[in-house]
Design goal:
The structure is a single chain. With 670 residues, the protein is mainly beta. It has one domain: TonB-dependent receptor, beta-barrel domain (Maltoporin, Chain A, Beta Barrel), CATH 2.40.170. The chain has 5 helices and 39 strands. The strands form 6 sheets. It has a 24-stranded antiparallel beta sheet that branches. Strand 21 and strand 22 form a beta hairpin. The longest helix is centred in the N-terminal third of the chain and has 14 residues. It starts with a helix and ends with a strand.
């Protein structure tokens, strides 16, 4: 199916359409944008944050997850980035609605959900910042189109258009620990459309994740090796109508702490989108994702393989159609439907830590799906903008199973789980009132929901020494939230915003301790998060200063068998997060920037028995043009080599990225 999508899109580009070429011959060329329909009319009521291309391409680490950390409150389950984290722990969330590794934030790339169909993690290593034009982050639930999963917010990644990209680009970096980063891309006009092809390869020997005081001879560096190749093509179908194709292939290999503790992830994604900007505006999208994951667990005592998660194939299929009828200049009505289907299985072998022989062979998996219809309207009444939306989703969890056999093939377990299905409604409303020039107040309320992932339902896992069981009976998470805030812009170069929020995630899925070094996924009554978010920017000629801060008071509400968690903070959920960036862009074309990030203390586990201390890090970036096409670039991560604790179980500790120095050249031509 992926090859069919590729061939169909390339055929449209190469052959073109009669309307497009007729116009090229006798009149002006039809210009395509490669963008989605405008969605900014009512969204200011929800306090969205924008990250521009200049920031995306000047991050010291060169990694998208660290750029997203500019939005205070954004976090992955652990503090590691996509070089030293286990991929399955890279779920994205906002507003301290954490507690496990799944994504509670809906991450979209050109409208396509990026969460892995089986695990729910985001393949950050495959999302190269240089391929993007901008990012928009909306904290809070209830996104209209593709609303399922947006319980903590929505992150919209937008691919770079032709105007953003040079005809050819090449960058090569060398860094500490024998690290290298190579990126290349070409972009060309093709008829009235354009095609871009890009590739990126990252590798490094990595760093020791264990502190030097406790390091053992068996510890090895967290080596990584990843690559991705992306193809994007945009062509006109008629005046005001364009077809957009995007394809991505990626692989990622990592080693975590012990020799042989290797993980890998891979994917092949394709999507086709048709956007019409006529009187009746239409956005139609279809996509397919094929993913896989492997992981080997090594015993910290015997250094033998104890688990080989050798194969976890999964598939995601989906699409949406959104129609905006002409209802007058004071309204923007959006009606449509969307669907997402996920299926996956795991194949794993358990080994004895003493003998190294197979003790069990396991196979599990299932299917989940959501089918939604939605309607939203943005209504401008004088200076006031009102926005509201309602959606209804039919969700299903089907064909769940877990099978286990002994080494000689004897059936130990053969569980078939009941199919489940129901309807879930969600809504959001908001208002924006510009009280005066440069001052606006806003308020919003919303609901949302998230299905448990196949990983949460059916896959047990171990992060030594703690084992976590799956739970096929998990309920759907349901969010209710309200927020209010204001935005001040006393001058074009000065802005400040503040938001107060209260979010309650009912039936939140958590990893609940049920014994010594033993947990099980389960639903707690709720996670309640309330707090304040601040952001600001000031531009003084060639110097720009921006920053954000989030205070999140997040608590678990639990009863019954999980009563011990009541009143505690969710795992991996800091109360404080802040960052600030200073950027100097002199007229010579050079760029200099420094970014400080602070993350407060947080608890490793649900019982608050281990604390990860707060951390303050400083990064820097400098780019100096040598010619019109060539620039010398230097980057430093964690300048002061701050020890950032990412995992702590008693005396067993893992650390995050130490100081890394990069030097490289960038070549561009237009």
């Amino acid at each position: 199916m992926i090859m069919l999508l590729v061939r169909t899109s390339l055929l449209a580009i190469i052959i073109g359409t009669p309307a497009a070429y007729a116009q090229e011959a006798v009149g002006p060329i039809i210009i395509v944008t490669g963008k989605a329909l405008d969605q900014t009319k009512g969204d200011p009521a929800y306090g969205s944050v924008e990250i521009d291309r200049a920031r995306l391409t000047s991050e010291a680490s060169g990694r998208i997850e660290n750029v997203l950390a500019d939005v205070a409150g954004f976090q992955q389950f652990r503090r590691s980035d996509s070089r030293s984290a286990n991929p399955s722990a890279q779920g994205a969330t906002l507003r301290a609605l954490g507690g496990n590794a799944s994504s509670r934030t809906l991450v979209l790339l050109d409208g396509v959900p990026q969460a892995d169909p089986f695990f729910g993690y985001i393949p950050f290593s495959a999302i190269a910042p240089e391929r993007l034009s901008s990012v928009r982050v909306t904290r809070g639930g209830g996104n209209g189109a593709f609303g399922a999963g947006a319980v903590a917010g929505t992150i919209e990644l937008n691919s770079a258009g032709r105007a953003d990209l040079p005809d050819a680009s090449l960058s090569a970096f060398y860094g500490s620990n024998n690290a290298s980063e190579l990126s290349a891309g070409v972009a060309t006009n093709l008829g009235a459309g354009f095609v871009t092809l890009s590739g990126r390869w990252d590798r490094g020997d990595g760093f020791f994740t264990s502190p030097i005081a406790t390091r053992q001879p068996s510890d090895v560096r967290a080596a990584y090796d990843s690559w991705s190749t992306g193809l994007r093509a945009v062509a006109p179908l008629a005046d005001g109508v364009e077809i957009q194709f995007r394809g991505l292939i990626f692989q990622d290999h990592r080693t975590l702490r012990f020799a042989g503790a290797d993980s890998s992830s891979e994917g092949q994604d394709a999507s086709i989108r048709i956007v019409s900007r006529g009187l009746w505006q239409v956005d139609a999208l279809a996509y397919v994702q094929a993913r896989n994951f492997t992981n080997v667990v090594i015993s910290a005592t015997s250094l033998r393989k104890t688990l080989d998660q050798r194969n976890t194939p999964s598939t995601g299929l989906g699409g949406k159609i959104e129609i905006r009828p002409p209802v007058g200049s004071d309204h923007q009505l959006r009606i449509g439907a969307d669907a997402r289907l996920s299926d996956g299985m795991l194949f794993e072998d358990a080994y004895s830590a003493v003998t190294g022989l197979v003790t069990a062979r396991r196979n599990a998996g299932g299917n989940t799906a959501t089918f939604g219809i939605f309607a939203e309207n943005d209504w401008k009444i004088g200076a006031v903008t009102l926005t509201g939306g309602l959606r209804a989703d039919r969700w299903t969890i089907d064909n769940g199973f877990f099978a286990e056999r002994s080494a000689n093939g004897t059936v130990v377990r053969d569980d078939k789980f009941a199919n489940r299905a129901s309807w879930q409604t969600s809504a959001r409303v908001g208002a924006l009132y510009p009280a005066s020039d440069g001052f606006a107040v806003r308020a919003a309320a919303y609901t949302g929901f998230r299905l448990p992932t196949l990983n949460e339902l059916y896959r047990p896992f171990t992060v030594f020494p703690v084992a976590t069981r799956a739970n096929a009976a998990l309920k759907v998470e349901k969010l209710r939230g309200v927020e209010a805030g204001f935005d001040i812009r006393p001058a074009d170069d000065l802005s400040f915003g503040a938001t107060l929020f209260y979010n309650r995630l009912n039936d939140a899925i958590a990893n609940i301790t049920i014994g010594t070094n033993l947990r099980q996924r389960g639903n707690v009554d709720a996670i309640v998060a309330k707090g304040i978010e601040l952001s600001g920017e000031a531009i003084f000629g060639e110097v720009a200063i921006s920053g954000s801060y989030a205070f999140s008071d997040s608590k678990v509400r639990a009863s019954g068998s999980a009563i011990a968690l009541n009143g505690l903070s969710p795992a991996q959920s800091p109360r404080h997060a802040a960052n600030a960036t200073v950027r100097w862009s002199p007229s010579t074309g050079a760029v200099f920037s420094a970014t400080a990030r602070y993350v407060g203390a947080q608890f490793e586990d649900d019982l608050e028995s281990n604390t990860l201390p707060s951390a303050l890090t400083l990064d820097s970036f400098a780019q100096i043009p040598l010619t019109k096409q060539v620039a010398l670039t230097g980057r430093v991560e964690n300048i002061f080599n701050k020890a950032v604790v990412t995992r702590k179980v008693d005396t067993s500790i893992d650390l995050g990225t130490p100081r890394i120095l990069w030097i490289g050249l960038k070549f561009t031509t237009r």
